[in-house]
Amino acid sequence: MVRIAVIPGDGIGPEVLTEALPILEWVRSLGRETEWALFPHGAAHYLSTGETLSTETFIHLRDNFDSILFGAVGDARVPDGRHAEDILLRLRKELLLRVNYRPCSPMLDKHVPLKGISAADIHMEIFRENTEGPYCLQGETTEQGATDFSIHTEIAISCLLRAAFQRAESLRVPLTLAHKANVLKYGHGLWMRVFREMQPAFPGVQSNAMHADALLCALVQRPVDFGVIAADNFIGDLISDLLAAFQGGMGLAASANLAVADDPTLMGNPFRCSGLFEPVHGSAPDIAGQGIANPAGSILSVALLFRHLGWSEAAQAVEGSVKQALEEGAATADLGGVLSTREMGRALRAGLY
Ligand code: NAD
Ligand code: IPM
Ligand code: MN
């Protein structure tokens, strides 16, 4: 029995996740035994109970569930984003979900905003380091003022880059490391060293390092040239939303936060919970509560969950159903259409039944 924890969170998180949940019911019809449990964690829960994510809940998620399906966090009533840090960033970091995997394969030509580029031209995947950099959540305040730390460790970099090299090798596509080692001598100098040391182990992979600023320009001008893109946590976050735009916008982009099998920190004892699946977008306070958010990113994240579980036929069916609905013109406001979140959810799932 596969057990999935569902954390809808804030803003449009619950709205889009509601449209993804019927797919967890549908997959049982393929003989895939699964059950899911709903968790209330988010801004409202924090404001009413004082709990962001207790240690008890964290351990429950870690030890009693195989994966987490997540909506979004972020709420103006918690201006310091404390609950988002304690829930999402902590789960990524403490579950050792080293890889934030964010694929970008646009489904329709009209979704691609780049002149002269069609959907079939673009197949990219971001491998974003997911636990460190400025996201290490460490800092201190002294009489002189506050200091914020950014951390890069060889273990995290090696885990991320090995996964990225392996993926580029199996897809037979180029691997590009986004970095700023020209100025960030220590942190990104370490990334460059690990990258150079790993290159000989993957002779079949055409691998290059590019300055991240120049890479962003090249991604817009010649996206066809890129395959797997590896980046640290912060740069990977920025590239994520650029690549969401290539797919047609924030409403369509899906992501997976994944543990790596050979993570030395786990010393051969992996946690039961090895993945967290979520749309790339956030809680979208500007449209929350209106019932107009696009649930496609959330639904496509369920496809990534199924692929992680080895249920590739289910993943393909979900992706196929989404693509078919988009081709037939199903669209929420972000895609220029008039469908509500619920209507869009129904349309995106229609091909499954
Ligand atoms: P956002 O991704 O929430 O929204 C950016 C823009 O995209 C907005 O105009 C929004 O309306 C639009 N958009 C996003 N998702 C959409 C969807 N499914 N359908 C249609 N339109 C959609 O980013 P933001 O506005 O910078 O951040 C809002 C809050 O979300 C902040 O608190 C931020 O910290 C948080 N956030 C959370 C996550 C996460 O939980 N993984 C990710 C990003 C941002
Ligand atoms: C994302 C988001 C998060 C991040 C925020 C909500 C902490 O932007 O998942 O990309 O910066 O990682
Ligand atoms: Mn982001």
Write the layout of secondary structure elements.
Elements lengths: L1 E8 L2 H15 L7 E5 L4 H7 L5 H10 L2 E6 L9 H13 L4 E6 L19 E6 L9 E4 L2 E4 L5 H18 L3 E5 L7 H12 L8 E5 H10 L6 E4 L1 H15 L6 E5 L16 E5 L16 H13 L3 H16 L13 H9 L4
Parallel strand pairs: 1-2, 1-3, 3-12, 5-10, 8-9, 8-10
Antiparallel strand pairs: 4-5, 4-11, 6-7, 11-12
Helix pairs in contact: 1-9, 1-11, 5-6, 9-10
The structure holds nicotinamide-adenine-dinucleotide, 3-isopropylmalic acid and manganese (II) ion.
The site of manganese (II) ion has 3 residues, from helix 8.
Describe the structure in your own words.
The chain has 353 residues and is of the alpha/beta class. The protein has two domains: 1-95 and 271-353, Isopropylmalate Dehydrogenase; 102-252, Isopropylmalate Dehydrogenase, CATH 3.40.718. Helix content is 39%, strand content 18%. The protein has eleven helices and twelve strands. It has helices spanning 12-26, 43-49, 55-64, 82-94, 154-171, 187-198, 212-221, 233-247, 296-308, 312-327, 341-349; strands spanning 2-9, 34-38, 67-72, 99-104, 124-129, 139-142, 145-148, 175-179, 207-211, 228-231, 254-258, 275-279. Strands 2-1-3-12-11-4-5-10-8-9 form a ten-stranded mixed beta sheet, sandwiched between helices. Helix 6 links the parallel strand 8 and strand 9. Helix 1 (12-26) runs parallel beside helix 11 and helix 5 packs across helix 6. The protein is globular. The model has no long low-confidence stretch (mean pLDDT 97). The chain binds nicotinamide-adenine-dinucleotide, 3-isopropylmalic acid and manganese (II) ion (MN). Residues 74, 84, 88-89, 237, 240, 280, 282 line the site of 3-isopropylmalic acid. 3-isopropylmalic acid is lined by residues 74, 84, 88-89, 237, 240, 280, 282.
